[in-house]
Each structure stands twice: as structure tokens, then as C-alpha cells.
Amino acid sequence: MTRHLLRDDDLSPAEQSAILDRAARMKVDRFGERPLAGPQTVAVIFDKSSTRTRVSFAVGIADLGGVPLVISTASSQLGGKETASDTARVLERQVAAIAWRTYAQSGLEEMAAGTTVPVVNALSDDFHPCQLLADLLTIREHKGELAGLRVAFVGDGGDNMVHSYLLACATAGIHLRVAHPVAYGPRRAIVDDAIRIAAQTGGSITLLSDPAEAVDGVDVVVTDTWVSMGREDQKAERLAAFSGYQVTRELMALAAGDAIFLHCLPADRGFEVEAAVIDGPQSVIWDEAENRLHAQKALLAWLLEQD
Ligand code: CP
Ligand code: NVA
């Protein structure tokens, strides 16, 4: 049965943990596994802009002995003249896997349903599961065992990053607090899924409106842009709604003394985070960005073994 990663809870706790272990090994021995030797090709498709995802998939596929085929949707037939499922039927005869950065989650579901090769969500409007594998790898490197850690996400609670934090942290047994303006909260069905998973792993989910309450004593503080790709027309109202949610030095001082700060990047310094925090000693954003490479290599290697 072909496995896909469309959302974070497509991985069980044991599978998530095994991929993180493998990513850590691959980071130490970067060229030690070559499951794409042949070489086989992996298609990486972008409907939206990208730096980290584009580079880390291209480099990672090459590290694994394969060839990356990076496609800009605007220059392909996908989305214009051709459906996701027809595109997948064409690609599966020639590539080992497909990664796709797109808008609607339903497009990824359609692609995955119509193909025999693994499909990876390289960011959708709803989830960013590759980023969460990198974030959890980074947190593990700095804090050790994930289960039982306290993590606070502050800011846009209604977007892909927070939805992925909900599901991935629940899977890892983490205690996650999310502080968001009332009008920008996570989708209820995703919160319910996260609560159900957390009940099995020993984690927990707490939704709050007060950033100070959310970061009190936590091990990890996370934020993301207030204006995600595709929401640029809402910029003015979003900057107003999120003005009390900036991660400042004062806010970080409420977390544990050795707390770390994460941001998936790209960042808007002076909006969701103060420059002194993201560029300060508690920030681990460059480790986090590098870990996209190792986490996705482990994910691809694992997916290719599943069918
Ligand atoms: N964090 C992340 O996905 O970055 P890019 O948009 O540059 O790929
Ligand atoms: N939430 C952001 C993440 C960017 C990597 C966006 O979707 O634009």
C-alpha cells in the first residue's frame, strides 16, 4: 500500500519517531544511504514561492542518489489544463515520488488517490508536515526527548503551521499551548484530531488568547508570519489583529530560562517577532532550516520502503 504524507497525523507516533531517528543518523552520515541510486527521479512541484523547501528537496534527492525534477506549476499544465490526478498518472510512470506545494489540501488528496507513488505535502493552505519533521528534529537536538516537553505557538492560529504543530506535537506526546486572537484560531476538526491523538500519547492541547499565559515556563516558543502566502490581500487587517502577539524579549523572558525560539522562515522582523529574539542567543532558526534537508531525506527514504 503506497504511503503518503499529506498531513502530520499520516504518521503514527512510532513512525514519526523512526523518521526522526533516521534523520539524525543521516545528518551525521550525509551520503550513507542512496535509495534513489539508479538514478531515480523525484518530482517537486511548486504552485507557491519557496527557498528552503525547493533547495532542501533538490539537495536531499541528490544526496540520496536521485535526480530532482523541480517544476513550477505556472510553466506546466497542472492547475490550468490538467487535473492533479491526470498529472499524477503521467508522473508515476517516470518518477519515484512527488512532492507538491499547493493551495488546497483537496488537490493533494486528489493527487494521492490517483497515483501509485508517494505524494508529499510540501506545504498547503492547511498543513506543512515537512517543516514539522524538521522542527521536531531541531527541538530534539536541543532539548532531548520530545514527549513531555512544553511548546508554545504564538500568533496566527488559523494557518498551516499551527495546524501542523497541533497534529505533530500531539503525535510526539508534547504539551502544546497555542495563543491566538479569537478570530484567527485553528479549525475545530483539526483541534479535535490533535486532542484525540494527545490522549493516546500523553501530550495535551491548550488554546489560549493570552501570549503571556501560553509561554509561561515553556521549553520552546514558536511563531510564524502573520501574512501567509495567498493571504496578502488581508495584510492590513491581519497586522492590526496580531499586534499584541509579537514574540518580544519580554515575552521570551516568561519562558524557561533555557527556552529556544523557532520560526519556519521567511520572517518579518518587527512584526511576528522582534529582531533581538530571532537573531538572539535563544534562536535556533538556522539549525531548523538545515534540518529540512535531513528530515525530508529520512522521510523520502522511509516512504520508498513502504510499498
Ligand atoms: N519554511 C519554508 O517552507 O520555507 P520556504 O517557503 O522558503 O520553502
Ligand atoms: N505560513 C507560511 C509558511 C511559510 C513557509 C505560509 O504559508 O506562507
Automatic annotation (TrEMBL):
Q: Which InterPro entries match?
A: Asp/Orn_carbamoyltranf_P-bd, Asp/Orn_carbamoylTrfase, Asp/Orn_carbamoylTrfase_sf, Asp_carbamoyltransf_Asp/Orn-bd, Orn/put_carbamltrans, OTCase_ArgI
Q: Which keywords has UniProt assigned to this entry?
A: Cytoplasm, Transferase
EC category name: transferase
Q: In which pathway does it act?
A: Amino-acid biosynthesis; L-arginine biosynthesis; L-arginine from L-ornithine and carbamoyl phosphate: step 1/3
**Keyword Zinc listed:** no
Where is the protein localized? Cytoplasm
Positions contributing to L-ornithine binding: N160, D224, S228, M229
Q: What is its main location?
A: cytoplasm
User: Where along the chain is carbamoyl phosphate bound?
Assistant: S50, T51, R52, T53, Q77, R101, H128, P129, C130, Q131, C264, L265, R292
Q: What is its EC number?
A: 2.1.3.3
Q: Which Gene3D superfamilies match?
A: Aspartate/ornithine carbamoyltransferase
- The chain positions of domain Aspartate/ornithine carbamoyltransferase Asp/Orn-binding read 148-303
A Pfam short name = OTCace_N
Q: Where is the Aspartate/ornithine carbamoyltransferase carbamoyl-P binding domain?
A: 3-141
HAMAP family registered for this protein in UniProt: OTCase (MF_01109)
Family stated for the protein in its record: Belongs to the aspartate/ornithine carbamoyltransferase superfamily. OTCase family.
* Protein name, as recorded: Ornithine carbamoyltransferase
Originating organism: Agrococcus versicolor
Q: Lineage from the top down?
A: Bacteria, Bacillati, Actinomycetota, Actinomycetes, Micrococcales
